[in-house]
Amino acid sequence: MLHEKFSYVREKCINGKTYWRCTQYTTQIKCHGRVHTLRGKIVHSSKHNHQPCGQGRTAHLASFSCTRKKKRKLVIDKHEFVMDRKLKSSINWRCSRYRSSNCKVRATTHVLKNGQEVYRLKYAKHSHL
Ligand SMILES: [Zn+2]
Ligand SMILES: [Zn+2]
């Protein structure tokens, strides 16, 4: 399960409540981040001792899909981004729901020397599902 960019594994299930622990628990990090869910809703969460995946300096490979008008769309975690501005060496994108949901999430992509296209996220929290 993925929640707020942290990934969890199911630990146990008691009285309909599911207990999840961070996948970094078994690594050297020994993270004690946990969430409890009840009928699909988060009812409890505790802090992690590390950065969530998808943040920091790591760049991630970008994936794209096409709009009906044959324009490229950037896809990150099932969210779609439309092209905002094309710069010399990079492209700025914004969440396709920026208008309908007033979402402020943005991303930039650029092409590496090896030809791979990578993205970086800014304001990683969407205002919608
Ligand atoms: Zn953790
Ligand atoms: Zn969004």
Automatic annotation (TrEMBL):
<keyword id="KW-0862">Zinc</keyword>
<protein>
    <recommendedName>
        <fullName>FLYWCH-type domain-containing protein</fullName>
    </recommendedName>
</protein>
<dbReference type="Pfam" id="PF04500">
    <property type="entry name" value="FLYWCH"/>
</dbReference>
<feature type="domain" description="FLYWCH-type">
    <location>
        <begin position="2"/>
        <end position="50"/>
    </location>
</feature>
<keyword id="KW-0479">Metal-binding</keyword>
<dbReference type="InterPro" id="IPR007588">
    <property type="entry name" value="Znf_FLYWCH"/>
</dbReference>
<dbReference type="GO" id="GO:0008270">
    <property type="term" value="F:zinc ion binding"/>
</dbReference>
<feature type="domain" description="FLYWCH-type">
    <location>
        <begin position="65"/>
        <end position="128"/>
    </location>
</feature>
<keyword id="KW-0863">Zinc-finger</keyword>
